[in-house]
Specification:
The protein is mainly β and 363 residues long. The protein has no helices and 31 strands.
Length: 363
């Protein structure tokens, strides 16, 4: 009988103190369904909210989470294999190089000395309403310090992905889109016919290769409470609208997952939201059914995939069947992101009120 030890650790932080396509990816050294789990609770001192949204690591001893904090600090934390500590980004108070109030939404890297995070810079509107304005924010870590990138600013950014250090994409609110070629961030655009009474949100992006990139977008029409979701693809330098569907009160059927995308190491595209879908190259096939909204997928192969979401849901696929870690279910939490290297797995999330962040660590 499989045993599971769950240790609840309440962490009180001190006050500012190229894949080979000819081979199949290996299975995890240990069956993930037999992992021992620990749970850390992160709360930035003096804050009402510490809600981390995304997680990435170069190794189990070099892991970052990014997200929201109601103060000007506590937007990023780092794990060194022993403990989680806040990363001092702010200039000049924390000794960082990033000026002004910010929020972070996503993080992605290629090594411990080449990591990107995106989100928004927050400014006071001199002519409200609204009282605050947001603009695009891209920051980079070179192994020594996080620095703001010079860009033609658009709106808030929500997702970042890259096939290589010289092929990185990020997208966000009002169709904001950028591409990095290894030297310069250039602002781009996607031409899609969308309703005029809603804001076009590019929600998630996944770069499979320099010639193939996928994106999920949506438009919410307030008057109709209708959400139209778009699946877009970039091939040979051109973006195209591949598929779409809408939901509204009384109509909730979905054609693909509207919350996000993930490309497996083998190159297969998945989407998730309610349910998990696999892209065949011409259509979506449902591979797992759940009405619980899934927020993120990650894995080292299609024989070792994780998916996480609302109500503290964690799923694992071993190439044969999907398994839910029911012992880790938390109806008061949203698990927003997951990262694994095949030996260990980290799940980031937060309580429903955003008060504290949860980090689940399986190994």
């Amino acid at each position: 009988m499989r045993s599971l030890a769950i240790t609840i650790i309440s962490v009180v932080l001190l006050q500012l103190s190229c894949k080979d396509k000819g081979t199949e990816p290996p299975l995890p050294l240990k069956n993930p369904r037999e992992y021992t789990w620990t749970i850390d609770t992160l709360a930035y001192p003096g804050s009402f909210q510490t809600a981390m949204r995304d997680i990435w690591g170069s190794s189990p001893t070099d892991v970052y989470v990014v997200g929201h904090n109601d103060r000007g600090f506590g937007k990023m934390f780092h794990y060194d294999g022993k403990e989680w500590k806040p990363v001092g980004l702010n200039y000049p108070i924390e000794g960082g190089a990033i000026e002004g109030p910010i929020d972070l939404s996503a993080i992605y890297g290629f090594s411990k000395n080449d990591i990107w995070a995106v989100g928004k810079r927050i400014d006071i509107n001199p002519n409200p309403p609204p009282h605050f304005l947001d603009s695009s924010l891209i920051i980079h870590f070179d192994g020594k310090q996080w620095r703001d990138q010079t860009i033609l600013r658009g709106r808030s950014l929500w997702s970042i992905s890259g096939s290589a250090p010289n092929d990185i994409w990020t997208c966000g609110t009002d169709g904001t889109l950028y591409h990095f070629d290894g030297n310069t961030w250039r602002r781009g655009s996607v031409v899609v016919s969308v309703p005029t009474d809603g804001s076009f949100l590019l929600w998630d992006i996944q770069a499979k290769s320099p010639s193939e990139v996928y994106m999920i977008g949506n438009v919410t029409q307030n008057a109709l409470a209708r959400i139209t979701t778009f699946f877009l693809m970039r091939k040979n330098g051109e973006w195209s609208l591949v598929d779409s569907f809408f939901t509204e009160p009384g109509r909730i059927a979905v054609k693909f997952g509207q919350n996000g995308l993930w490309v497996s190491p083998e190159g297969t595209l998945y989407s998730f939201g309610p349910h998990i879908f696999r892209w065949t190259g011409s259509s979506w096939v449902k591979v797992y059914e759940t009405l619980d909204a899934l927020k993120k997928m990650a894995g080292t192969s299609e024989r070792n995939m994780f998916a996480v979401g609302i109500l503290g849901k964690i799923l694992h696929y071993n190439g044969i069947d999907w398994y839910e870690f029911k012992e880790l279910r938390n109806p008061n939490a949203v698990y927003s992101s997951v990262w694994t290297d095949g030996k260990e797995v980290f799940v980031a999330g937060f309580f429903n009120d955003g008060s504290k962040t949860l980090i689940l660590h399986g190994r």
